[in-house]
User: What shape does this take?
Amino acid sequence: MKKIFIIISLFSISFVSSAQVRIVPEIVKENFKNQYPNAKISEYEDLLVKVIVKFTLDGADMKATYTNKGSWKGTDKEISYATVPAEVKDGFNKSKFADWAIRESTQIYLPGGSIQYRLRAKKNDLQLKYLFFNTKGRLLRTSITI
Assistant: This one.
């Protein structure tokens, strides 16, 4: 009886773990390849409702996000704060977050050709936010981060 229980338990664990793994949709792979033909893919991260493709292009580490149906939602490229456009820096310096320290900067490419900049700002250990700016330096929105 004990052996049967162990076998059933192992089978159940195997079934549950394999049920959570799925193959990245081919449409995502195809759309990524068409959009970034020269990219070197490092990883696909399937989150069921979206797929994140981590890759390198022209020496830069980037992440593209697609829906599980293959629609491109945007691409993030980490950049140094020194390369953030002057308009964005000016917008940050004129915002209520001007006395916060910038921890990281990201350039975000969005459908339709628009670009945004996401700055991860920290005031203290409890106050961390993402600040989203357009290319003209206008603060579009904020979100809490950890």
